[in-house]
Design a protein that fits this description.
The structure holds two protein chains of two kinds. By secondary structure, chain A is α/β, with parallel strands linked by helices. Chain A folds into two domains: 219 residues, Rossmann fold; 90 residues, no CATH class. Chain A contains twelve helices and twelve strands. Chain A is globular, with a radius of gyration of 21 Å. Chain B contains eleven helices and no strands. Chain B is elongated, with a radius of gyration of 26 Å. In chain B, helix 3 runs antiparallel to helix 4 and helix 9 packs parallel to helix 10. The longest helix of chain B is centred in the middle third of the chain and has 36 residues. Chain B has one domain: MetI-like fold (Orthogonal Bundle), CATH 1.10.3720. Chain B is mostly helical. The chains are: A alpha/beta, B mainly alpha.
Amino acid sequence: MNRPLLEVDNLVIEFETDRGTIRAVDGISFCVGASETLGLVGESGCGKSVTALALLGLIPSPPGRVAAGSIRLDGRELTGLSEARMRKVRGKDIAMIFQEPMSALNPVFTIASQMTRVIRRHQGLSRRQARAAAVEMLALTGIAAPLRLIDDYPHQLSGGMRQRVMIAMAMSCEPKLLIADEPTTALDVTTQAQVLEQILALQSSFNTAVILITHDLGVVAETCSRALVMYCGRLAEEGTVESLFAHPRHPYTAGLLESIPALQASRNRHLPTIAGAVPDLAELPPGCLFADRCPSARSLCREEHPRLITSGRDGRVACHFPVQSREAYRAALVQWES
Amino acid sequence: MSINQPANPGVDGRLGPDEPVKYKGPGPATGLDSPLRKAVYKLRRDRWGMLGLAIVIVYALIALGVVLGLWGQDWSSTAGPRWAGISAEHWLGTNLIGQDIFNRALYSTRTAFEIGLVVAILSTLLGALLGALSGFYAGTWIDEIILWKKGVLDAIPFYLFVAAVAFALEGNAWAMHIAMIATFWTITARLVRGEVIKLKNLEFVEAATAIGASRMVTLFRHILPNTLHILLVQGTIVFVSAIKSEVILSFLGLGVQEGTSWGLMISESTQEVLSGQFMNFIVASTMMFILVMAFNLFSDSLQDALDPKKVH
């Protein structure tokens, strides 16, 4: 891995609201290597999806805008690109899979017409060639009989089928980067696993990098090599999946891991949660945004915002007093609660 | 009720245990799956709608025959006797100046269809275009301008507007068409605007953008086809309105300038009814009544057929 495929540097995204300017994403930086799978984790409203939309230049403007920072794909700057140029990037270089397979397909066109349209626009194939390519792509996503399904309308397919069609459509132009925005949230668990497997299989055969946006840590553990944990529009922690799960450094990551229900938990043990709520983005407190919910917060945390420091071999964490171990976090939590 | 009646009839009284419901399984597509086929199937099951459609087709054939010169060509000939009764030569009699009423009624069908089709197609296209733009750019100056135009046109009384257009175009044969198109598009545009505002926030629109579609492609190839059901129904409604308006306008002398129409026939009959001659009036009104009625029946059942929530 010489140069990363995607480099995001100090990205700031702001939204104008009635209550003033809100920073939905505040200075996050990360990179994605070619054919790497990066997980983007965080709770609702932490800026995951907004970050993804910014990569495609799809921040609704107004009210939103990319206020600062740079996004480089293969060394090419994407922020400030004209709408016409950006259109050529979308679908061809960066493709996206959406959360709701139910509404992400146009209800009045057949699968064939929607898929061939994309393929023809970006690859300039004839109608017949595009149709053949669509059938092939559908077969690659694990659809058993693509020829029977290709002339169907979206409402005739199940949720899993539709998500596969979405994946096939996104992958049909062999993008360098695939953004999957909670691709499995709307699916049941068995289908989830199959769909994830398909994404990974396609990724390795097409050498595509994937950014997987999710709030499901299980999905991250299964599929990603590295993950970013976001909190309130800022990067809380970054690291390889192994180190994140084994040695979380940020109390937020540790809290998330603790609150996963264990299969063999004793009946009397209550499920630890992260107390409190996300601060209001319009009235952010000074200091660490997680301080009010953090069991190991000290006075420094409420005064000064922690900067990202390197942790471990290639991880980063934004915390003044990083967690030493999961046991230590548990102990701190018990002490804090009592 | 015989002994053979199943002891345990089903919920609807028809299905007994002896005749279990046959499960056909998923199987291959039955042809009922595509929305269009479903709509056609529903339309065909609606008897009143089909009756309406049949009558409309008969009228359309009459109009086509006139265009092709098969019948109704002698509409202007004044050769006949004045106010002749029903006879083998003049099936529905003649009018004040000896013109054959049957021929005139046939020719008027052509006039009605011409006006109905031209106005329905053009005003629906205009309404779709402006409504789609105004909905897609809702809240911007584009929307403001279109809404403002719509408001102004809606505020002017229709007949006053037509009179003004007819006067401004000085006897131009298309004055009436232009006036109708200029006023009828507003309703279509309003309906399309609302639908586009609803549709543009759905995820498939975002997906289309994310895959590289431009704004205009998104609007006209992804969003607008989803309003087709509105356009079809609205088109049939405008068709009927145009025919009815033609009759009234022609009666007032603002309508058809060349040829003849049911409106002109009714207008003529005002000079005849006092003398006890009702043929012109009855024939023109009946022809119009039946066509409008039939078209309304068809339009109603089309609306039901295109509504996926209505199952009957």
